[in-house]
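User: Fold this; tokens only.

Assistant: Input:
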Amino acid sequence: MEWTTLLYLSLILFTGICFGRLMKLVKLPNVTGYLIGGLIIGPYCLKILPVDFVEKMNLVSEMALAFIAFSIGSEFKLSYLKKVGLTPIVIAVCEAFGAAALVAAALAAFGFDLGLALLLGAIASATAPAATIMVVRQYKAKGPVTETLLSVVALDDAAALIAFGFASAAVGVMQNPESVSLGMALLSPVIEILASLMLGFLLGLVFTIPLRFFKEDSNRLILTIGFVFLGSAIADWLGLSALLLCMCMGAMVINCSKEAPAVLRLVDGITPPIFLMFFAVSGAELNITVLPTIGLVGVLYVVSRVLGKILGASAGAIVMKAPNTVKKYIGFTLIPQAGVAIGLSLIASQTIPAYGQTIRAVVLCATMIYELIGPAITKVGLLKAGEIKEA
């Protein structure tokens, strides 16, 4: 019998839910089970899912990340932002650039090429919001660490884009000092971020208009899906950040529409299978055969990034006089890394073709490690902070 797309999707759903339940037995987050299940049935283990099918599942990833960004944006209520002030922004900047600086310094200290060190350092600043949000939702975490975390991961994407833009500009100038305009190279990531923010806010404002006239849940769900898909599509079309655009759209809706809580409840009802498929497919994409190829540069990247995240986040929390639990544990919740880092690694490998394979291998291997252990570490951090119960 020839396998069809629907048959593969059903297998992914059943595998994900089974491994999610198995993870509960060992007290690990469901998302870890989804990743492991996808890895096992993927093209690099049991080879049940073929490579071409996994590559075609980019649509699921785009949908999942768009909804995740929209949900993150809904956490940016003005009342909350007035209460916490600049704390999440300072922590996000410190943890992102702390990871970037420590990775770049470690690689440079061990004699690796400066261009390679700068680009891998910039990629290290990225954090995967999807896995973190899934852990928070599963355990219904509440408290100062959770509130700060949701804001930090929302801002992390912008910080990573800025860091990578500056690193790419510096490397481009080093390689072609005469043919590259440093000013334009540095300005490009800033323009991308500002355009993503403005279009996201505008689309969110437009979204609030039909919500006034469509009262039935079915119609509101259709509108929500349509606008989230539209936001992601516009971002791809214009070369902007879909995460930032959808995040800003969610922020505008939650602050400008009384219907926002009802809309978010509808979204929560349809996203679980999408998220499951997203993480299972992400697991299937993890090529374990590249593990032996990363060598010293991979070890330095993995270790120094974790240290940079923890130390940078704690430093930012100390500067802003955040609660003690935030100072101690916020860094441990920022370990996961996935989609944004992989995307940036593609661009980086094009910037320095000579190191293309090294950059890709290091980031893919690190992604596998971070995505498998990151959710568990996030859970431990929130547990230690007293914001989730073991039960």
